[in-house]
């Protein structure tokens, strides 16, 4: 059973991230040591907020950073966070766009003081692949 408070916290974090990205017309200047190659998240996201989002993915999919991020080239230790060579990274971007679109279209209202929306956790439930259910006609 999913811990309701964890799901609400993760939903709130993702809502904040998606709301910020939806209302950011022009990104602020990114520091030279800041994140590179952000295509869905706001370019001016703080390190702390970016880390929170990434930890949310870790929890929602039960994966570590190397699931989406490629290893550094030439045998260097660590991950090349800016690289797009790992296809899971672009899948994650598309999933973020999809959830943002669904939340914007279907979950604009508040119900019992809680903003209803979907997150990665909604379908993945801590698994790399979302669980699917066959519905019989």
From TrEMBL:
One of its GO terms (biological process) is photosynthesis, light reaction. Keywords: Electron transport, Heme, Iron, Metal-binding, Photosynthesis, Signal, Transport. InterPro entries: Multihaem_cyt_PRC_cyt_su-like, Multihaem_cyt_sf, Photosyn_RC_cyt_c-su. The keyword Transmembrane does not apply. GO terms for cellular component: plasma membrane light-harvesting complex. It holds the Pfam family CytoC_RC. Residues 1-22 form the signal peptide. One of its GO terms (molecular function) is heme binding. The reaction center of purple bacteria contains a tightly bound cytochrome molecule which re-reduces the photo oxidized primary electron donor. This is Photosynthetic reaction center cytochrome c subunit. It comes from Sphingobacterium yanglingense.
């Amino acid at each position: 059973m999913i811990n309701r408070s964890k799901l609400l916290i993760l939903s709130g974090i993702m809502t904040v991230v998606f709301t910020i990205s939806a209302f950011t017309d022009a990104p602020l200047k990114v520091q030279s040591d800041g994140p590179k190659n952000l295509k869905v998240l706001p370019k001016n996201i703080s390190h702390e907020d970016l880390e929170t989002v990434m930890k949310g993915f870790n929890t929602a999919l039960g994966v570590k950073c190397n699931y989406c991020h490629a290893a550094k080239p030439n045998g260097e230790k660590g991950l090349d966070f800016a690289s797009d060579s790992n296809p899971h990274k672009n899948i994650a971007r598309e999933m973020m766009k999809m959830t943002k679109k669904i939340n914007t279209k279907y979950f604009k209202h508040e119900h019992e003081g809680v903003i209803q929306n979907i997150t990665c956790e909604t379908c993945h439930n801590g698994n790399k692949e979302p669980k699917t259910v066959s519905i019989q006609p």
